[in-house]
Amino acid sequence: MLVAGRIFALGMLIALWVFIIGCMEMAKKKLPSFRKLAGLDALPEMVGRAAEMNRPVHYTTGLGELTGTVAPQLVAGLAVLGYVSELAAKYGVKIVYSVYQAQVMPLATEIMREAYIRAGKPDAFNAEDQIRYLSGEQFAYATAVQGFAERERPAANIMIGPFYAESMMFSETFFRIGSIQLAGTARGYQIPFFAVICDYLLIGEEIYAAGAYLSKDPVQCGSIQGQDLGKLIAWILMFVGVLATVAGSSIINDLLKA
Amino acid sequence: MSKQGTGFWGKLEDVPREILYAILLIVFIIPMLKPVGFPVPISDAVKKWHATIDALPAGSAIMIDFGYSGGGEPELGPMAVAVYHHIFRKGGLKSITMSTSLEGPLLWDKVIAEVNPAKYGAKYGVDYIHIGYISGTETAMAAVGKDLRATTNTDYKGASLDQYPIMQGIKDASSFKLLICYTTGGDQSEGWVRQWYTPYKTPYLLSVIAMMVPTMLPYQKAGQIVSLTSGAQAGEMELLLGVPARGIKSADVITLTHLLVFAFVVMGNIAYYGRKASERARGG
Amino acid sequence: MSLFVRRQLPIVLVFVAAVLVMADYFLKIPGTGPVVKDLQNWGIILTAFSLGFGAVNLFYLHTRHISRRTPGQWPFSTWLLLMIVVFTIVGVTMGPTGPQYSWLYNSSYFALSATVYSSLGFYMTTGCYRALRARNAEAALLLVVGAIALLRNAPAVAVGVPIIIPMEAWLSAIPTTSAQRGIMIGASLGAIALGVRTMIGRETGFLGRLTEAERRG
After folding, report:
1. Which residues of B93-128 are buried (b: 16+ CB within 10 A; e: fewer)?
2. Which of A78, A133, B157, C76 is 20 to 30 A from A210 (CA-CA)?
3. For residue A188, which residues of chain C lie inside 8 Å, CB to CB?
4. pTM of the model
5. In chain A, which segments carry CATH 3.40.50.720?
6. pLDDT grade, residue B2 (50/70/90)?
7. Same domain, yes or no, for B230 and B254?
8. Do the chains contact at B138 and A69, CB–CB below 8 Å?
9. Architecture of the CATH domain A38-215
């Protein structure tokens, strides 16, 4: 019945489901706490800076589709968009969201509209001006964002989501015009480029935690806690595996290949 | 012009980017016009790639994914050309190409035109074929791996696959002895590991743009990728095969530009410490 | 449209499709293979349609710019739509693999794409120049590792200073690979968590425009 070589993977998958769903339920009673994420704590400062300089805030969730393998990163970016939009509404700062994929527009419109309503400024939101579908082609999108940066010179640039080769282009361009930058991606290829240029960085699964960290939503918080339990299992397996291998036993290797 | 620091060290620490770009551009152009002929070592990864293809028995089918876009062509195109030279020269292999990138078929046409398979006696539909762009990336890989003919029954020009001798006996992933992927996208490079290597254990050769190599290394170290090269190593492959072309020409440019960037970094650090020393001296 | 159709039904469909695909991968259940194969082929067809949807969206947005004469935008929108029409006519009448389409592609899109991609080299140069400064211990470490990687990837330097090859190989194989593995494990767990939330209806982003109450169900 079970396919050989995939039994352990199935077991781990089921265990992860149990952890994640269990933690989501437990989070409804008591929210888990998170360690400090400097980039996210700096968001009010970044939006405040834009208010002082009377310049807009730019937000992008990079490339990627809601139905693709990088969808979790896109969703993480959208989660932070709501928080930043509410901050921008409160401070009276224009926030512009550059969209790569047309599918995301209705979702982003709803997220930002609700953020403005929560901030008590529903009339300040202008979807046509603040949510800009630029292009579905990577470099057309990248050059359009660069053009926006040069023309409107935002004071803050927030990039959270799946980024590809355009990450370097964005970081350099916004650095050059003097924007303060927060970037986050789980695509390992692009983290080094953000790391050397941006002021604040979220690495890997920190972007998944970002939505939970800011919104304090029990579902998201519990989900992050479940993921952390999964990481703990991985760490234990690695540690025990190293010890076993050094001792000449292949028990963990065999278990992983079961 | 961008803003510059004051004082000698300040200016050196903050050279305007226009000057840096101009110097870089000059260093790019000169070796392209007048190649220097710097030595090029042949890395283990390229040797392993070469040996893997060489070890294929006659009649083996190779699945090749042209998963890169026009932007990656200058880097990956030369590698694809060199590998095709190897495949056609060896002879007796069936290379079946698909594209997980929309521009793949057009870029494949460029590569084939550059290779000129006819000079090796290779014929379209007998020794090589392109089955077209298949959308969906990982879904496409999974579908082709399960049942190629159910996923597509035409080549990239729309002609039925039934008429081509190369497609006889080609059903699914088990029909292939080797998988090669050229890509600028992590979705493709990692997708093939998940959709072909993991379920079918198809040996996998991957060539990516240089900045993707560190991220793909875990797969290569775990044995999921037989050989991982960057397109910048096309010159090494050309040297190994004795088919010098665009790749080896770029090797001079790569050497000089890397040395230039290193020089800029050293200059920036000297300037940084020079400025700090002069500030300390002024401060007493 | 009723809430059942907009919310519950898509979640049920997602759950069933996900369970089928996972069952086919992990278990030997007769009958799931052909069903999953069909699902995957439907996925390919839907993705192909989404390309067309993207083109329709472009038309809609840019014709609005043209009709409103958006300052600084409408001439470019006109050019964009003109090129879409030209590419479409040539592709449909003369074939997307014909010499005319190839010429159009090579002389416009390919040249622009390669040029923009190549501009990354310039950005990386200024990025390296500015960022690789030994301001503190961590920055010095970054500088040393970056310098080794730079020199190793210059072919002539690797020949002239062979010690750099094993140094860079160790840096790639041990710290870099380990760090990448950690990031990959984290990213994969995030993807699994999103999958679980989507399957049980706790993640409703893909359902599009729903109110807060509708999302909560």
Report:
1. bbbbbbbbbebbbbbbbbbbeebebeebebeeeebb
2. A133
3. 180, 183-184, 187
4. 0.88
5. 38-215
6. very low
7. no
8. yes
9. 3-Layer(aba) Sandwich (3.40)
